[in-house]
Write a structure and sequence with these properties.
Layout lengths: L1 H10 L16 H25 L6 H15 L5 H31 L5 H29 L7 H15 L1 H23 L8 E4 L5 E4 L4 H23 L1
Antiparallel strand pairs: 1-2
Helix pairs in contact: 2-3, 2-4, 3-4, 3-6, 4-5, 6-7
Protein backbone atom coordinates (compact mmCIF):
# COMPACT_ATOMS: atom_id res chain seq x y z
CA UNK A 1 0.00 0.00 0.00
CA UNK A 2 2.87 2.32 0.79
CA UNK A 3 4.54 1.72 -2.58
CA UNK A 4 1.27 2.23 -4.41
CA UNK A 5 0.56 5.50 -2.58
CA UNK A 6 4.07 6.81 -3.28
CA UNK A 7 3.83 5.95 -6.97
CA UNK A 8 0.45 7.68 -7.15
CA UNK A 9 1.81 10.80 -5.48
CA UNK A 10 4.74 10.91 -7.93
CA UNK A 11 2.46 10.63 -10.93
CA UNK A 12 0.21 13.37 -9.52
CA UNK A 13 3.08 15.84 -9.23
CA UNK A 14 2.44 18.93 -11.32
CA UNK A 15 4.87 21.87 -11.47
CA UNK A 16 3.53 25.37 -10.85
CA UNK A 17 4.58 26.37 -14.39
CA UNK A 18 4.03 23.54 -16.85
CA UNK A 19 6.58 22.69 -19.53
CA UNK A 20 4.27 23.71 -22.39
CA UNK A 21 3.90 27.29 -21.15
CA UNK A 22 6.00 29.98 -22.82
CA UNK A 23 6.92 32.27 -19.91
CA UNK A 24 9.69 34.89 -19.91
CA UNK A 25 12.56 33.60 -17.76
CA UNK A 26 16.23 34.17 -18.71
CA UNK A 27 16.22 37.96 -19.12
CA UNK A 28 18.97 40.58 -18.81
CA UNK A 29 17.27 42.34 -15.90
CA UNK A 30 16.96 39.09 -13.96
CA UNK A 31 20.63 38.23 -14.53
CA UNK A 32 21.84 41.71 -13.54
CA UNK A 33 19.75 41.84 -10.35
CA UNK A 34 20.78 38.28 -9.48
CA UNK A 35 24.48 39.19 -9.74
CA UNK A 36 24.01 42.25 -7.51
CA UNK A 37 22.15 40.21 -4.86
CA UNK A 38 24.75 37.43 -5.12
CA UNK A 39 27.49 39.92 -4.21
CA UNK A 40 25.50 41.35 -1.29
CA UNK A 41 24.35 38.03 0.21
CA UNK A 42 27.67 36.37 -0.57
CA UNK A 43 29.56 38.97 1.46
CA UNK A 44 27.07 38.69 4.32
CA UNK A 45 27.21 34.91 4.40
CA UNK A 46 31.00 34.82 4.25
CA UNK A 47 31.05 36.98 7.38
CA UNK A 48 28.34 34.89 9.07
CA UNK A 49 30.08 31.62 8.19
CA UNK A 50 33.43 32.74 9.59
CA UNK A 51 31.77 34.12 12.73
CA UNK A 52 29.36 31.36 13.80
CA UNK A 53 30.24 28.46 11.49
CA UNK A 54 26.78 28.49 9.90
CA UNK A 55 25.41 30.23 6.83
CA UNK A 56 21.88 31.21 5.86
CA UNK A 57 20.40 30.40 2.49
CA UNK A 58 20.00 33.51 0.36
CA UNK A 59 17.10 32.03 -1.63
CA UNK A 60 14.35 33.33 0.63
CA UNK A 61 15.54 36.94 1.12
CA UNK A 62 16.60 37.04 -2.54
CA UNK A 63 13.12 35.95 -3.65
CA UNK A 64 11.51 38.67 -1.53
CA UNK A 65 14.02 41.29 -2.70
CA UNK A 66 13.58 40.26 -6.33
CA UNK A 67 9.80 40.66 -6.18
CA UNK A 68 10.06 44.03 -4.44
CA UNK A 69 12.71 45.48 -6.78
CA UNK A 70 11.51 44.15 -10.13
CA UNK A 71 7.84 44.93 -9.49
CA UNK A 72 8.79 48.47 -8.49
CA UNK A 73 10.18 49.19 -11.96
CA UNK A 74 8.39 46.70 -14.24
CA UNK A 75 4.81 45.49 -14.51
CA UNK A 76 5.25 42.35 -16.61
CA UNK A 77 7.55 40.46 -14.24
CA UNK A 78 7.11 36.68 -14.27
CA UNK A 79 7.60 34.12 -11.51
CA UNK A 80 10.38 32.45 -13.51
CA UNK A 81 12.33 35.70 -13.67
CA UNK A 82 12.13 35.96 -9.88
CA UNK A 83 13.25 32.33 -9.70
CA UNK A 84 16.30 33.10 -11.86
CA UNK A 85 17.21 36.01 -9.55
CA UNK A 86 17.00 33.94 -6.37
CA UNK A 87 18.89 31.07 -8.03
CA UNK A 88 21.81 33.31 -9.00
CA UNK A 89 21.81 34.95 -5.56
CA UNK A 90 21.76 31.60 -3.75
CA UNK A 91 24.60 30.35 -5.97
CA UNK A 92 26.74 33.31 -4.90
CA UNK A 93 25.90 32.61 -1.27
CA UNK A 94 26.80 28.93 -1.67
CA UNK A 95 30.20 29.77 -3.17
CA UNK A 96 30.88 32.20 -0.32
CA UNK A 97 29.97 29.51 2.19
CA UNK A 98 32.19 26.96 0.48
CA UNK A 99 35.10 29.38 0.60
CA UNK A 100 34.50 30.30 4.24
CA UNK A 101 34.47 26.64 5.26
CA UNK A 102 37.55 25.54 3.28
CA UNK A 103 39.97 28.46 3.07
CA UNK A 104 40.69 28.50 6.84
CA UNK A 105 42.27 25.06 6.28
CA UNK A 106 44.94 26.75 4.16
CA UNK A 107 45.63 29.14 7.05
CA UNK A 108 45.96 26.22 9.47
CA UNK A 109 48.38 24.50 7.08
CA UNK A 110 50.40 27.69 6.71
CA UNK A 111 49.60 28.09 2.99
CA UNK A 112 49.23 31.61 1.53
CA UNK A 113 45.78 32.73 0.40
CA UNK A 114 45.80 34.66 -2.86
CA UNK A 115 43.04 36.09 -5.02
CA UNK A 116 43.80 33.56 -7.76
CA UNK A 117 43.55 30.61 -5.37
CA UNK A 118 40.22 31.83 -3.98
CA UNK A 119 38.83 32.42 -7.49
CA UNK A 120 40.01 28.99 -8.69
CA UNK A 121 38.53 27.22 -5.68
CA UNK A 122 35.18 29.00 -6.03
CA UNK A 123 35.02 28.41 -9.80
CA UNK A 124 35.82 24.70 -9.57
CA UNK A 125 33.36 24.24 -6.72
CA UNK A 126 30.60 25.98 -8.66
CA UNK A 127 31.24 23.97 -11.84
CA UNK A 128 31.36 20.70 -9.90
CA UNK A 129 28.09 21.53 -8.16
CA UNK A 130 26.29 22.28 -11.43
CA UNK A 131 27.61 19.13 -13.15
CA UNK A 132 26.52 16.98 -10.19
CA UNK A 133 23.07 18.59 -10.06
CA UNK A 134 22.21 18.09 -13.74
CA UNK A 135 21.76 14.28 -13.56
CA UNK A 136 20.34 14.33 -10.01
CA UNK A 137 17.75 17.07 -10.44
CA UNK A 138 14.86 14.98 -11.79
CA UNK A 139 15.29 12.25 -9.18
CA UNK A 140 15.75 14.55 -6.18
CA UNK A 141 13.27 17.27 -7.13
CA UNK A 142 10.53 15.50 -9.09
CA UNK A 143 10.51 11.83 -8.13
CA UNK A 144 11.28 12.47 -4.45
CA UNK A 145 9.11 15.58 -4.26
CA UNK A 146 6.81 14.21 -1.55
CA UNK A 147 9.52 12.37 0.40
CA UNK A 148 12.34 14.92 0.83
CA UNK A 149 11.42 18.00 2.88
CA UNK A 150 13.71 20.71 1.39
CA UNK A 151 12.37 23.19 3.99
CA UNK A 152 14.15 26.29 2.70
CA UNK A 153 13.47 25.41 -0.94
CA UNK A 154 9.80 24.82 -0.16
CA UNK A 155 9.57 28.13 1.69
CA UNK A 156 11.23 29.92 -1.23
CA UNK A 157 8.82 28.35 -3.72
CA UNK A 158 5.84 29.41 -1.60
CA UNK A 159 7.16 32.98 -1.44
CA UNK A 160 7.49 33.09 -5.23
CA UNK A 161 3.95 31.77 -5.68
CA UNK A 162 2.64 34.26 -3.13
CA UNK A 163 4.34 37.08 -5.00
CA UNK A 164 2.74 35.88 -8.23
CA UNK A 165 -0.71 35.80 -6.63
CA UNK A 166 -0.26 39.06 -4.71
CA UNK A 167 -3.03 40.27 -2.41
CA UNK A 168 -3.06 39.60 1.32
CA UNK A 169 -0.43 36.85 1.08
CA UNK A 170 2.06 39.28 -0.42
CA UNK A 171 1.37 41.72 2.41
CA UNK A 172 2.13 38.98 4.94
CA UNK A 173 5.59 38.44 3.41
CA UNK A 174 6.34 42.17 3.50
CA UNK A 175 5.05 42.43 7.09
CA UNK A 176 7.26 39.53 8.17
CA UNK A 177 10.27 41.15 6.55
CA UNK A 178 9.60 44.41 8.37
CA UNK A 179 9.38 42.56 11.70
CA UNK A 180 12.77 40.95 11.05
CA UNK A 181 14.26 44.31 10.04
CA UNK A 182 12.89 45.95 13.20
CA UNK A 183 14.26 43.19 15.43
CA UNK A 184 17.68 43.47 13.80
CA UNK A 185 17.71 47.25 14.22
CA UNK A 186 16.77 47.06 17.91
CA UNK A 187 19.49 44.50 18.67
CA UNK A 188 22.39 45.46 16.40
CA UNK A 189 21.52 49.12 15.90
CA UNK A 190 20.18 50.42 19.21
CA UNK A 191 21.60 47.56 21.33
CA UNK A 192 18.49 47.41 23.52
CA UNK A 193 19.31 43.80 24.38
CA UNK A 194 22.08 41.34 23.69
CA UNK A 195 21.87 39.50 20.39
CA UNK A 196 24.06 36.78 21.91
CA UNK A 197 23.04 36.36 25.56
CA UNK A 198 25.60 34.49 27.66
CA UNK A 199 26.01 33.11 31.15
CA UNK A 200 29.37 32.62 32.88
CA UNK A 201 29.57 29.61 35.21
CA UNK A 202 32.19 30.78 37.68
CA UNK A 203 31.94 27.53 39.64
CA UNK A 204 33.04 25.52 36.57
CA UNK A 205 36.31 27.18 35.52
CA UNK A 206 34.40 30.24 34.22
CA UNK A 207 32.78 28.27 31.40
CA UNK A 208 30.68 30.52 29.16
CA UNK A 209 27.31 29.30 27.87
CA UNK A 210 25.81 31.47 25.13
CA UNK A 211 23.17 31.31 22.40
CA UNK A 212 23.10 33.09 19.06
CA UNK A 213 19.62 34.65 19.05
CA UNK A 214 20.13 36.62 15.82
CA UNK A 215 17.30 37.51 13.48
CA UNK A 216 18.72 35.43 10.63
CA UNK A 217 19.18 32.27 12.68
CA UNK A 218 15.76 32.52 14.32
CA UNK A 219 14.17 32.92 10.90
CA UNK A 220 15.97 29.84 9.59
CA UNK A 221 14.96 27.90 12.72
CA UNK A 222 11.32 28.80 12.13
CA UNK A 223 11.53 27.67 8.51
CA UNK A 224 13.31 24.34 9.03
CA UNK A 225 11.17 23.42 12.03
CA UNK A 226 11.96 22.09 15.53
CA UNK A 227 13.39 18.73 14.40
CA UNK A 228 16.16 20.06 12.14
CA UNK A 229 16.80 22.98 14.48
CA UNK A 230 17.24 20.51 17.36
CA UNK A 231 19.69 18.42 15.30
CA UNK A 232 21.77 21.51 14.54
CA UNK A 233 21.68 22.59 18.18
CA UNK A 234 22.69 19.10 19.32
CA UNK A 235 25.71 19.23 17.02
CA UNK A 236 26.74 22.56 18.48
CA UNK A 237 26.39 21.28 22.05
CA UNK A 238 28.41 18.17 21.22
Amino acid sequence: LTKVSIMTSKSDFKPYVSADQNVREFTLRAIFLGIILAIVFGAGNAFLGLKVGLTVSASIPAAVSSMAILRSFYKNVTILENNIVQTIASAGEALAAGSAFTLPAFVILGEPISFGRVALLSSMGGILGVLMMVPLRRYLIVEEHYNLPYPEGTACAEILKVGEEGGSKGKAVIFGGLIGLGHKFLTSGLHLWEETPRYVMNFFQRTVVSIEASTALMGVGFIVGPRYAAITMAGGLL
